[in-house]
């Protein structure tokens, strides 16, 4: 197999001071990428700041002969997002890839939701993805080869999880961001995908520092590397990965049931099995495709 080398491409990794982000940054650098290692260095709940985690990852990369710069700005603000991208432009004059990995957790059941905590979670995850991706997207539009953006979603957003309403909502919001960016970036050669990693990190309270551990972050890194590479085969997709397992997730639409005239709640209930039957499901990739499906149903028969 031909090695996936980055040949000096510039890749930003947020939240790269430890865990998954650190694994991503190291694998990218070892393949020749020039890496912006971003990490505010706060706690798992997003409190405080510490420059040492990002700086230490940069030291490892440089000791191995790679190129990297550290950045300590917060993804949670527009100014921070711009500064992170500017760090890449100042150092190397371009941005070829972004992996939006930074995250915090402040879990609380919905009935006991602290709205300040919820806003902080949404600011880091959803707005963090927007704050970093937007200036990177603009920079990538000037690249002859476009670029790649990887947004970090979660099984909690795709499927739900007790106590993670704000986190799950933010993570599913990133899927919506990804799908729209895929459409807007296509003509400029920008590919955008979402990754739902499963790994032991400080956020999950079961850190797996041993690379051979079942849920070691290193076992997720291969797909993050592939999605950030110029030969990335996907665009607008969602992937779940962990423990050496990789899977594509998708949004499906059943064939459904239609009654253009005189439909009632009662007739809908009577045909509910047809509405929910997954046989022959479709995978629309845009709102336009959904409209086309509906328009076909409205055609005279």
Notes on the structure:
- This protein is α/β, with parallel strands linked by helices and 301 residues long.
- The chain is built from ten helices and eight strands.
- The chain has an eight-stranded mixed sheet, with helices on both faces.
- Strand 4, helix 4 (115-140) and strand 5 form a beta-alpha-beta unit.
- It is globular and about 70 Å long.
- The mean pLDDT is 94.
- Keywords: Oxidoreductase.
- Belongs to the short-chain dehydrogenases/reductases (SDR) family.
List the helices and strands and how they pair.
Blueprint (H helix, E strand, L loop, with lengths): L9 E4 L5 H12 L3 E5 L13 H12 L3 E5 L6 H15 L4 E4 L14 H26 L6 E6 L2 H5 L5 H21 L4 E8 L23 H8 L9 E5 L2 E5 L15 H6 L1 H5 L10 H12 L3
Q: Main sheet: which strands, in order across?
A: 3-2-1-4-5-6-7-8
Query: Alpha-carbon distance between the termini?
Result: 53 Å
CATH homology superfamily of the largest domain: NAD(P)-binding Rossmann-like Domain
- Structural class, by secondary structure, is alpha/beta
Order of helices and strands: EHEHEHEHEHHEHEEHHH
Beta content: 5-15%
Helix content: 40-55%
Q: Count the strands? A: 8
Low-confidence stretches: none
CATH topology of the largest domain: Rossmann fold
The CATH architecture name of the largest domain reads 3-Layer(aba) Sandwich
How large, in whole angstroms, is the Cα Rg? 21 Å
- Shape summary: globular
Query: Biggest sheet, open or closed, and with what strands and sense?
Result: 8 strands, mixed
Q: What is the total domain count? A: 2
Mean residue pLDDT: 94
The level 1 CATH classification of the largest domain is Alpha Beta
Assembly state of the chains shown:
single chain
């Amino acid at each position: 197999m031909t090695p996936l080398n980055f040949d000096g491409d510039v890749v930003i990794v947020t939240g790269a001071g430890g865990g998954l982000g650190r694994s991503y940054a190291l694998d990218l650098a070892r393949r020749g990428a020039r890496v912006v290692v971003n990490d505010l260095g706060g706690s798992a709940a997003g409190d405080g700041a510490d420059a040492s985690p990002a700086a230490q990852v940069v030291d490892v990369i440089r000791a191995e002969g790679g190129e990297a710069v550290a950045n300590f700005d917060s993804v949670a603000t527009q100014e921070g997002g711009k500064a992170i991208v500017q760090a890449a432009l100042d150092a190397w004059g371009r941005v070829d890839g972004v992996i939006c990995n930074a995250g915090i957790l402040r879990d609380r059941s919905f009935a006991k939701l602290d709205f300040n905590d919820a806003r902080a979670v949404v600011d880091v995850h959803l707005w963090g993805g927007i704050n970093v991706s937007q200036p990177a997207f603009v920079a990538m539009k000037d690249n002859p080869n476009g670029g790649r953006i990887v947004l970090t979603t979660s099984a909690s957003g795709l499927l739900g999880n007790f106590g993670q309403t704000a986190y799950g909502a933010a993570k599913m919001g990133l899927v919506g961001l990804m799908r729209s960016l895929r459409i807007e970036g296509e003509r400029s050669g920008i590919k955008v995908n979402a990754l739902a990693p499963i790994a032991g990190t400080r956020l999950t309270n079961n850190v797996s520092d041993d690379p051979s551990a079942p849920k070691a972050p290193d076992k997720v890194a291969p797909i993050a590397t592939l999605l950030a590479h110029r030969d990335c085969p996907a665009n607008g997709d969602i992937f779940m990965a962990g423990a050496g397992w990789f899977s594509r997730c998708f949004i499906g639409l059943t064939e459904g049931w239609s009654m253009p005239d005189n439909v009632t709640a009662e007739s809908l209930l009577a045909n509910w099995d047809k509405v929910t039957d997954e046989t022959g499901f479709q995978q629309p990739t845009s709102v336009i495709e959904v409209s086309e499906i509906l328009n076909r149903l409205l055609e005279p028969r």
